[in-house]
Amino acid sequence: MRRHFIILAILATSGLAYATGASARTVCQGPAPAAGQVVHGPVLEVPDAATLCLATGASPAQWTAIAVPQLKASRALLMAAAFGQNATCVIGADGQADCKIEGVALADQIRQPEIQKASMQWRTGREDLNVRTQIASAAR
């Protein structure tokens, strides 16, 4: 029951941030991670093509902006690959993170044809939350 409450609190706060047009800095209020630190949590925001916002707790004060290397990816591609998924990121000495999304390297995720196809739906504004399931079903 408590887990459901935490998830609802995260979603409500995230929705409020979107509704108010909050920037990544106001949505991801957690402290910047140090080099060598491992950060794990669901990706609740992708403010641009170089940043993921991971929730390490229910409050935006516990959401951390994670800088990812320039992967020649658009925001839409990062959204398709990471949004709503669990990420584990190791922060490098340069502040850039090496991230795995559901155990798969982010760089490998964005090269997957189904992720690239799903990114087109983010670009056109479609709000289909079952994109991965539908693409997997269609591929069979």
Would you mind describing this structure in some detail?
The chain has 140 residues and is α+β, with helices and mostly antiparallel strands. The protein has one domain. The chain is 40% helix and 24% strand. The protein contains six helices and six strands. It has a six-stranded antiparallel sheet with strand order 3-2-1-4-5-6. It is globular. The N terminus and C terminus are likely disordered.
Key structural traits:
alpha+beta, six-stranded antiparallel β-sheet, 6 helices, 6 strands
Q: Radius of gyration from the CA trace?
A: 15 Å
The helix content, as a percent range, equals 40-55%
Total count of strands: 6
Q: What is the structural class?
A: alpha+beta
End-to-end distance: 36 Å
- Whole-number count of domains: 1
Q: Total number of helical segments?
A: 6
How are the elements arranged and paired?
Blueprint: H1 2-19, H2 24-27, E1 38-48, E2 51-55, E3 63-67, H3 75-82, E4 86-91, E5 97-101, E6 104-105, H4 106-111, H5 113-123, H6 131-139
Antiparallel strand pairs: 1-2, 1-4, 2-3, 4-5, 5-6
Helix pairs in contact: 3-5, 5-6
